[in-house]
Amino acid sequence: MPEKFVVPRFSSEAEEAEWWDSHQDLIAEKFEQAVAAGELGRGRAAQMARERTTGGASPTITIRLPEDDLERARKLAAQRGLRYQTYLKMLIHESLDREERRAG
């Protein structure tokens, strides 16, 4: 049985950021093991991992955005520890899901 991955409690955001930064290799290794074992749960990270391993490469598109929207996306993505392209893709996906539910 694989060893359970435990994230400690942190006394500050800076301490937490330092821990995640210094454990990147371990986190990536555990994540890859979970993908290979089919043990990812639900949620955006799990869905994106499944898409990467089963769906192949996404098509490349070009979209024009106002400069201020792009800057907002970069800041919000950074707060979540994501690349802004990943963050925008996530927002589009969530919005499409929401619209489909509304449409019935």
Describe the structure.
The protein has 104 residues and is an all-alpha fold. The chain has helices at residues 13-22, 24-37, 44-54, 67-80, 84-103. The radius of gyration is 17 Å and the shape is globular. The termini are far apart.
- Taken from the alpha-carbon principal axes, the silhouette is globular
Q: How big a fraction of the residues is strand? A: under 5%
Biggest beta-sheet profile: none
Overall structural class, as computed from helix and strand content, comes to: mainly alpha
Order of helices and strands: HHHHH
Number of strands: 0
Overall average pLDDT: 81
| Number of discrete helical segments | 5
| Alpha carbon gap, first and last residue | 43 Å
The figure for the number of domains is: 2
Low-confidence stretches: none
Question: What's the helical proportion of residues?
Answer: 55-70%
The whole-angstrom Rg is 17 Å
Provide the fold topology:
Blueprint: H1 13-22, H2 24-37, H3 44-54, H4 67-80, H5 84-103
Helix pairs in contact: 4-5
Question: What descriptive keywords fit this protein?
Answer:
5 helices; 2 domains; 104 residues; globular; 66% helix
Please give a quick description of this structure:
By secondary structure, this protein is mostly helical.
